[in-house]
Design goal:
four-stranded antiparallel sheet, Btk-binding protein-related, SKP1/BTB/POZ_sf, RCC1/BLIP-II, alpha+beta, Ran_GTPase-activating, globular
Length: about 600
């Protein structure tokens, strides 16, 4: 079993098939035996002993007791956007607004979108319904045996079991997706993978709706009557809600301010008293919650300080620092492996199934995040695109390399006779800077005008394009000057004016430095116009080899060394440089350095 696994689990001992424990007993927070866990983007778990893992950038792996791992491949031009799970069904949503399904039709007859005779998790099937109805699927959520789809921005559909009105369509059955009537425009949808309770946020007016099973008051509508159509949840504006998740008989809600509310069955709602409306959980009143997951009974909440709290679980299941009252939030100790990442925000991930809970690290694509920040700042741009009066500042090298067109060509094709509007331009730039497809139709029109292949190939991702850009020496528009000591000069030479200074140049793209390093952003913020901004001297006194490796890391997000490169020195120098260059996400570089230490057995 790999010691570098960042996926841990606890729960049913039957899940020991993931840990290779010979005694068939699953201790608290046991590392999994899954390989390459640092590539996990998301994990979702069904009811039985199976779960689906989305691995970066576009891979799916399915794990099930007594079966070999299965791998699934989507068409090459499809990019995964999200995955969701129910008891026996998994759905995969792609950036193109299409849906694929994976299910065990032999167990459950009311599997959403599938015939009941589908063999057990044998293959992924493309769901043709949405394409036939000309629906672009923006988001998906799944309950125990039901699914909701937000389409074309504000149209709500549901399919699967209509137990206790969980589809929100009255008494009708929903084997195939059916439209759900909500009085207002739906903007977000929420569920729990093992529940029959669903929630929706609307805008204009700004409300929170709920429907489905409410036998324990878990909808928070003030009663225990199940709701067969969307019903307003009082006391909350939709814009106040960060997330909502439900178990079999409880629902937990987190606001944008990080306040945690619960309702439903007293043993599982985090309050310890039966509640039919969402009530603030006292033990978390002073905590700012940022993440939430629910199983059948258990709930896990992560705070902005990377503190983990849980309740509704069996005593002894989680490592805790105090005597455990399973009905109210109890602080849960994290594995020692995670202590290196506690200072990093938005990396720890939590997930629950019926009898198991997962804890893992999302080594997110920090390149996307860095370029998103650079794009939204609108700083340090070197050209503009758009029509007169609606020009948008951009970074020339990035635009030209991603499109393989010059700025003049882009300007002529997009803002000539068939000019696109500002909204369409912004949609195009979101793809350029961080691979986001916010409006498929608008982006396709823009690609057609530019005579580019649509949809973009998975070989044309931002990550791959920037890695290739590292090799393009001709387009590098900036230089870092590294002081090279003159070996022939006497050490006691005190004539500074006549002292010979030799420099070696490291060419780089200026926008890469700006995106990845706070030091360079601060430097360019204060530079005078008369100064030469095409080069800068490095003052870290690091070796040229270490700086070259750091610059390559800025492009590739990875570090690879051989024994003859003096790994010990490079790791030492780059460890010091992490703080100096003010990297936006230091943990990723630290993780790469840790990998090198293990590779060469360094202390």
């Amino acid at each position: 079993m790999s010691n570098s696994s960042s996926l841990y689990l606890t729960g049913s001992k039957e899940f020991s098939f993931l840990t290779q424990k010979k005694n068939n007993k699953l201790p608290k927070w046991t590392p999994s035996s899954i390989k390459k866990t640092q590539t996990i983007k998301k994990l979702v778990c069904g009811d039985d002993l199976h779960f689906l893992v989305w691995k970066k950038p576009n891979k799916l792996e399915f794990y099930q007791e007594d079966n070999e791992k299965r791998k699934y491949q989507l068409p090459k031009n499809e990019t995964i956007k999200d995955i969701a799970s129910s008891l026996y069904t998994y759905l995969i949503l792609t950036e193109s607004g299409k849906v694929w399904s994976l299910a065990d039709g032999n167990i459950l007859k009311e599997v959403p979108l599938l015939d009941a005779d589908q063999s057990t998790f044998e293959e992924i099937r493309y769901v043709t319904f949405f394409e036939e109805k000309k629906l672009f699927v923006n988001s998906i959520v799944m309950g125990s045996a039901s699914c909701y789809y937000l389409c074309n921005g504000d149209q709500l559909y549901a399919s699967g079991s209509n137990y206790e009105g969980s589809l929100g369509i009255g008494k009708s059955k929903g084997k195939k997706p059916m439209p759900v009537y909500v009085q207002d425009k739906v903007t977000k949808i929420f569920a729990g993978s093992l529940s029959s309770s669903f929630f929706f946020i609307t805008s204009n007016p700004d409300l929170l709706y709920a429907c489905g099973n409410n036998r324990n008051g878990q909808l928070g509508v003030g009663s225990t009557n199940s709701k067969k159509s969307p019903t307003v949840v009082q006391n909350f504006l939709g814009s106040e809600i960060l997330t909502v998740s439900s178990g079999r008989s409880q629902s937990i809600l987190i606001t944008n301010e990080g306040q945690t509310f619960g309702c439903g069955y007293e043993k599982y709602n985090g309050i310890g008293v039966q509640k039919h409306i969402f009530t603030l959980i006292p033990q978390l009143k002073e905590k700012k919650a940022v993440q939430l997951t629910t199983g059948i009974s258990q709930t896990l909440v992560l705070t902005d300080q990377n503190e983990l709290y849980g309740w509704g679980f069996q005593v002894g299941l989680f490592p805790t620092d105090e005597s455990c009252n399973q009905n109210i939030p109890t602080k849960i100790r994290l594995p020692s492996y995670f202590t290196n990442y506690l200072e990093s925000k938005d990396m720890i991930r939590i997930a629950c199934g019926s009898d198991v809970s997962f804890l893992y690290l999302d080594f997110k694509n920090i390149l996307h995040e860095d370029l998103r920040i650079l794009y939204e700042s609108k700083k340090f741009c070197d050209c503009e695109i758009g029509t007169m009066g609606n020009q948008i500042p951009v970074h020339k090298n990035l635009i030209e390399f991603r499109t393989k067109l010059t700025i003049d060509q882009i300007q002529n094709k997009l803002f000539g006779e068939k000019s696109i509007n500002k909204e369409q331009t912004l949609s195009f730039l979101k793809w350029i800077y961080y691979d986001e497809i916010s409006d498929l139709g608008k982006l396709e029109q823009t690609f057609n005008l530019l005579e580019l292949t649509f949809p973009p190939s998975v070989d044309n991702t931002l990550e791959k394009d920037i890695a290739q850009l590292y090799q393009d020496e001709d387009s590098k528009d900036f230089k870092i000057l590294v002081n090279i000591e003159d070996k022939d000069e006497e050490e006691d030479n005190e004539d500074e004016e006549n002292k010979k200074v030799n420099y070696e140049e490291i060419p780089v793209h200026k926008f890469i430095l700006l995106a990845r390093s706070g030091l360079f952003r601060a430097m360019f913020d204060y530079v005078n116009e008369k100064d030469n901004t095409n080069q800068v001297q490095d003052y870290t006194n690091k070796s040229i080899e270490s700086l070259e490796i750091l610059i390559k890391y800025f492009y590739t997000n990875s570090i690879e060394l051989t024994a003859d490169q003096n790994p010990e020195l490079i790791v030492e120098e780059l460890s010091d440089a992490v703080e100096y260059y003010q990297l936006n996400n230091q943990c990723n570089l630290k993780s790469e350095l840790l990998k090198i230490k293990k590779q060469f057995d360094l202390k």
